[in-house]
Amino acid sequence: LLFLNQLQKDLEEVKEFLTKATRKRLRDVLMIEKHKLELEIKNQPPPKPKDAAEEEKLSLGGYTVKINNYGWDQSDKFIKIYISLNGVQKLPAENVQVNFTERSFDLLVKNLNGKNYTMTFNNLLKPISVEGSSRKIKTDMVLVMCRKKREEKWECLTQVEKESKEKE
Question: What is the pLDDT of residue 163?
Answer without folding.
Answer: 86
